[in-house]
Amino acid sequence: MMWSSQWNQGTVAVLYLWLAMFFGGAALEHQNSMMAMGFGSTPPLSLHRRLHRQRHRQQLVAPLRMGKGRNKQQDLARKMEMAKRQKREREGKKQEKGESDKGLTAGEIKERNDRLRFQQLLEQSAGKVLNNYAADGYLTQEQEERDNEERLRGVDQLFEDDPAPTDCFQELVSVKSDNVIGETGASRLIPWLRKNPDRRSDYLIILTDPRKESPELRQTIKRLANELPEDILDRMIVVNADTPAQNRRWMKKNKAYKIDIYSDEKLEWLQTYSALGKDRWTMFLYVIANERVVRLVRGMDGFEALRVVTNAVQDFR
């Protein structure tokens, strides 16, 4: 019985050892296969190694942050220096202007300032091509190509160098009187019909829009009234399809009295001058002189109105 008991104990011990080796090996093999497929995990880092890696990352990132800060400071310094330089230039110009104003009347000063501002506007656009406009051009390349194509196809509309119709002016309605201007009013507007021979070689600018209460036209009128010199404004009128009462209300509300507005509710003038458009209604610009349409811009962009008008009349000023 004693031998049997010892044998049983030894057998149990061997059995436990064999089971441990079997299951332990299987577990190790399973872990190795999982790591080979990319599902394994690396042993956790010690606290010392984690702290070491964190300090290393901070050392790498710190110079980058300092570099960004230095760049911002340099940009700010450049902007401040530029602002100071511009201020000095403005003060210098004001001083020169104040000295040159001595001995001039108020009218002469105003005329001089208008001329300088106009020259500044021309210099700003000189040598540039913006939105497909040449530096001294009033038409885009697309507008020129379209007009040439329509002229070759014989489209029934007004073109540059065509005779300028005059009878349709008589049916325009004055905003001031609510009456048509008639032959007398037309002869005051149209340069070659004026009584004064010295004024017959002048030019007339006509800005039009057949759309009722057109926001684009109204914004363009305000922009041109504020930025064009007086000698150009004196030669400009607006023809639209609004009633005289609508035009008066808008002019009063916006204090827009620098450019005379005439009503063409029946669209007779606009149709005679081919200003209704084939595809859509938009703004048109005309310059008439010497009994002809010397400038014609179809589909004028309100944002480019100042450039278009100044370039269109520079040969006649």
How would you summarize what this structure contains?
This protein is α/β, with parallel strands linked by helices.
Can you describe what's shown?
There is one protein chain. The protein is of the alpha/beta class. The protein has 10 helices and 6 strands, in the order ααααβαβααβαβαββα. It has helices spanning 2-36, 47-100, 106-125, 141-152, 182-189, 215-227, 230-233, 244-254, 268-272, 305-313, and strands at residues 173-174, 203-209, 236-240, 260-263, 284-289, 292-298. A 6-stranded mixed beta sheet has the order 1-4-3-2-5-6, covered by helices on one side. Helix 8 links the parallel strand 3 and strand 4 (260-263). It is globular and about 90 Å long.
Mean pLDDT: 78
Quickly give the structural class: alpha/beta
Order of helices and strands: HHHHEHEHHEHEHEEH
Low-confidence stretches: 1-7, 23-32, 34-45, 64-69, 125-130
Output the number of helix runs.
Answer: 10
Largest pleated sheet: 6 strands, mixed
Rough outline? globular
Q: How big a fraction of the residues is strand?
A: 5-15%
Strand order of the largest sheet: 1-4-3-2-5-6
Q: Percent range for helical residues?
A: 40-55%
- Cα-based radius of gyration, to the nearest Å: 42 Å
Distance between the termini: 137 Å
Overall strand count: 6
Summarize the topology.
Elements: H1 2-36, H2 47-100, H3 106-125, H4 141-152, E1 173-174, H5 182-189, E2 203-209, H6 215-227, H7 230-233, E3 236-240, H8 244-254, E4 260-263, H9 268-272, E5 284-289, E6 292-298, H10 305-313
Parallel strand pairs: 2-3, 3-4
Antiparallel strand pairs: 1-4, 2-5, 5-6
